[in-house]
Amino acid sequence: MAFTPEQNTVIEATMAAFLEVKRPAPDIRLQVDLAWRIEKQSIIIYEDRLHWKDPSQRIHNDMAKATYVKSANKWKVYWLRSDGKWYSYTPAPEVENLRNFTQLVIEDEAGAFFG
After folding, report:
1. pLDDT tens digits, residue range 36-56?
2. Using H for helix, E for strand and C for coil, what is the string for 36-68?
3. Residue 46 to residues 3, 6, 16, 71: CA-CA distances in angstroms?
4. Which of 9, 75, 88, 115 could form a disulfide with 93 if both were Cys (CB 3.0 to 4.6 A apart)?
5. What is the pTM of this model?
6. Domain ranges in the chain?
């Protein structure tokens, strides 16, 4: 199930505000940047960087995910471990809205998203 047009508007505005705060300086964004994408009912934040061996290639490293649970009207929060699996973010496994999710990622209290 896709997000509604109204939800998409909120998602785009919230994620734009997040990127405004967390993106690297403009002069290094070609080397490393932050971005996001929608996958089904999830918003995934990822690092976009040049491949260290082949600068013509880009690598996307997922780091944070929020999955919308319509029945509960909440977002479940996950972080990606080095084993490539998503784990519930223990300090706050769910949040009321996407803005709260981006705030968790910005603060990164547990060092799970940015190390």
Report:
1. 999 999 999 999 999 989 988
2. EEEECCEEEEEEEEECCCCCCCEEEEEEEEEEE
3. 20, 24, 14, 27
4. 88
5. 0.94
6. 5-107
